Each structure stands twice: as structure tokens, then as C-alpha cells.
Amino acid sequence: MAETVMVMSKTIMPQSNNSIAYVGGAQIRFERGLHLPPRQVENYRFLYIESGSGEFIIPDDTLQLDDRMLLLLSPGVREIQYDDKRQVSYSYIEFSV
Asked: Which class for 18: exposed (0-12), middle (13-18), buried (19 or more C-beta within 10 A)?
């Protein structure tokens, strides 16, 4: 049986001018492929792919995802497609500037 585990933390902190505010974060594991369709994202995100593979898609570019990758994602339109060949595990921290 496929297992999905999500450990989430979401905190909204007041943001003064010219500062960075933590928005949220999570550690996520799942057994099967996952597709997050194109969507507009308002915050920055550090994304660490612990294990798994797939594609990160932004307008005009596609990045192949693999084990032990660390990405800094800027706001904008993004889409992610994880394959279903093996378990995926990733962590992220989201923030606004």
C-alpha cells in the first residue's frame, strides 16, 4: 500500500519593509508519481529533493530533478511532475521578500 507522509509547519510572520518573512515549510514523502499543474506562486521557496526524480517546468524551460538537489525557486508560474518509478521525498521552506 502506498503511503504519503506530510509534516507541515505554517507560520505567517509580520513583515516590515525590506525584510524576509517565513511563510511555511514541510517535509513530504510519497510512493507514487505526483503532478502539480501550472499555477501562479507568490513566494520564494528553497526546495530540497532528498530522493526521487521528475521535472520542474517553468515557461520556456524544464529542469530535470534528481536526488540531493537544492533549488531556490522564485515567484511565478511553475509546474512539477514527479515520476512514479520510486519514492519521492522532499523538504521546502517558503518565504516572502
From this structure: exposed
pTM of the predicted model as reported, rounded to 2 decimal places = 0.76
The three cell numbers locating residue 30: 510519497
What mean pLDDT is reported for the chain? 83
State yes or no: pLDDT of 76 exceeds 70: yes
User: Tell me, what's the pLDDT at 18?
Assistant: 66
Nearest residue to 54 via CA among 95, 91, 94, 90: 90
CA 87, 61, 25, 39 dihedral sign is: negative
Segment 5-31 shows an average pLDDT of: 70
Q: Is 84 left (phi over 0), alpha (psi -120 to 50) or beta?
A: alpha
CA distance 61 to 34: 19
Strand partners, 7: 27
Give the angle 18-24-68 at the CA atoms, nearest 5°.
Answer: 105
